[in-house]
Predict the 3D structure of the following.
Amino acid sequence: REFEQYTAAHVLTFGLKPDAMINAQNVEIKSHGTEFDLSVFGHVTHVTMQLIGQFNVYNMLAAFAAAYASGIPEDQIIKSLEKVTGVKGRFQSVPSHTGVSVIVDYSHTPDGLLNALETIQDFATKDIYCVVGCGGDRDKTKRPKMAKIAVEHSTKPIFTSDNPRTEDPTMILNDMVAGVPNADVPVYEDRHVAIAKAIEAAQPGDVVLIAGKGHEDYQIIGRTKHHFDDN
């Protein structure tokens, strides 16, 4: 709002606060999407997104505001945005018939992992499984940090390999374990096994986050790319 006094251009504001011209209220985050009431200059429409999380509500509001400013009718914008399914591997909900919510996300940094787990905490009602590893030949300082985040923000962390590259996978996992000396975390060097263990152990209502590789359809071991898809 303060910006308006410094420009002659028409200004549209958006956000979660009710004083924004375009705002979202009564946000309800679920394992399969997000619902909220969209207010456009006081005109309220209930919106059901296929995307999950408050950050996606902000993204949707930004997209809506840009389209609205371009003169596209409000109902047309909403119908289009409700069809958006998101990008593969970016907090992607994977279909499951067991009652377990499975999320695949490219969270391969401490900040990314924390954001993903905090989003899950917004809708999780039972256990949160977090299958996570760290890449080889990359920043070693993030390994204990990511391990600590997984332990503190999930109830069932599992450590595994990411892209070990030319490093010994066992040494990478040891660096992670060193970050949580008082935690008893299952460790599986084989990523296939780690994911399978989480899926098999999870009960209806639980959430399984498979973090780190997202859209990648390969795993780099040594200098060779092997086909691997977290989906």
Q: What stands out?
A: The chain has six helices and twelve strands. The domain at 2-82 is CATH 3.40.1190.10 (UDP-N-acetylmuramoyl-L-alanine:D-glutamate ligase). The chain has two domains: 2-82, 92-227. The helical segments are 54-69, 74-82, 110-121, 142-153, 169-177, 191-201.
